[in-house]
Design brief:
Blueprint lengths: L1 H15 L2 H14 L7 H31 L4 H9 L3 H12 L6 H13 L4 H13 L2 H11 L1 H24 L8 H4 L13 H35 L3 H8 L6 H9 L6 H13 L4 H13 L2 H8 L4 H24 L6
Helix pairs in contact: 1-8, 2-3, 3-8, 3-11, 5-7, 5-9, 6-7, 7-9, 7-15, 8-9, 8-14, 9-17, 11-14, 13-15, 14-15, 15-17
Length: about 350
């Protein structure tokens, strides 16, 4: 068992945490740039270079793998599969489908429109809409590389639970009439997807990597830059005062700080990493990440063009309450994860 544990620890350190990259960047900062790792500038430069390269490497590999799997499930096939399930089973499947679609909230909305116009239950489509930007396989492995398996798995599980519960509530409320009329009238060709060759799947996966890179690279750089600033320049006493566990409003503040920020999970992880290092509670950090990925102002604005105000308000209230419950619960049970 000790040998297996040692091998697993080594693989985790070298493949997910990329200790080899940390060491290389440390040499670059100290020997080439002539900066001390103990200085604010040196620490910030190391944080920025290491996290950017690490995220881009993991992102490229993971998106390629996920896209290759996704090539077996084109929209036509996915709609047919989801159409077979009703009620809670359909909501669970819709939420799970979101885990294999590595999109930001705005990118998920066109798929949401397609599913709705195809006649899928509203609860299923909203479960997908909540889970798609919040949790996916790539975010699971990225979170593991930064925070470890316990926190990563917990984040994905509670995200899926929130997506299922949110979709179920919306379906029980019978809010189909609050979808804009043009959505129901959208055309959906019911055609069989052509079977792709192995080369076509590889080409498709490469294109997905390129497309998602174009969407997220700026947000990754901004997220890492903010994380570097928090990690090395903002005093820990200030962070703890605003977002520390002694502040009963920390989860609420973190959630609403995240809403104006438009980014995906990949851009929020470096900020979350820096906040955890400053002593912010894990529940507060998770609430911030969920607020950014699910309730960003651009995505809410886009969604307002698809659903009517009552349904939009219901969606926002359900997700916000769910995030707050998750945040405060994780803070109370943080001893299980740290």
């Amino acid at each position: 068992m000790n040998v297996i544990s040692t091998i697993f620890s080594w693989l985790n350190a070298q493949l997910l945490k990329m200790q080899w990259l940390w060491d290389l960047v440390e040499l670059l900062v100290e020997k080439v740039f002539g900066l001390s790792m103990d200085s604010r500038i040196g620490g910030s430069v190391h944080f920025f270079i290491y996290d950017v390269i690490k995220i881009f490497i993991l992102l490229s590999v993971l998106i390629f793998m996920i896209s290759y799997i996704q090539s077996y499930f084109p929209p036509e096939k996915t709609r047919k599969i989801l159409g077979r399930f009703k009620g809670i089973k359909g909501n669970i499947l819709g939420a799970l489908l979101g885990t294999v679609t590595p999109f930001c909230s705005c990118s998920s909305i066109p798929i949401f429109i397609g599913f709705t116009s195809a006649g899928l239950p509203l609860g299923v489509t909203f479960s997908f809409l909540i889970s798609s930007p919040m949790v996916d396989i790539a975010s699971l492995l990225l979170l593991m590389s930064f925070f470890g398996a316990k926190i990563a798995i917990a984040y994905v599980v509670v995200g899926l639970i929130l997506a299922v519960i949110g979709g179920t509530i919306i379906e029980k409320l019978g809010m189909e009439k609050h979808i804009e009329d043009y959505v129901w009238g959208a055309q959906n060709a019911d055609i069989e997807a052509d079977e792709m060759t192995r080369k076509e799947r590889i080409d498709f996966s490469k294109e997905q990597v390129k497309d998602i890179f174009k969407q997220v690279w700026l947000y990754v750089l901004l997220g890492v830059g903010i994380g570097a600033a928090i990690h090395n320049w903002i005093p820990q006493s200030f962070i703890e005062k605003v977002l520390g566990q002694n502040n009963p409003f920390s989860v609420l503040i973190a959630t609403f700080i995240g809403i104006p920020i438009y980014a995906d999970i990949f851009g929020t992880i470096p900020i979350a990493e820096a906040l955890v290092a400053k002593g912010v509670g894990i529940g507060t950090v998770l609430a911030f990440m969920m607020g950014v990925t699910t309730l960003s102002l651009p995505s809410i604005t886009m969604l307002s063009k698809v659903v009517k105000p009552k349904l939009l308000g219901t969606f926002i209230v359900i997700v916000t309450i769910g995030i707050l419950i998750i945040g405060y619960s994780f803070n109370a049970l943080s001893f299980l994860f740290i």
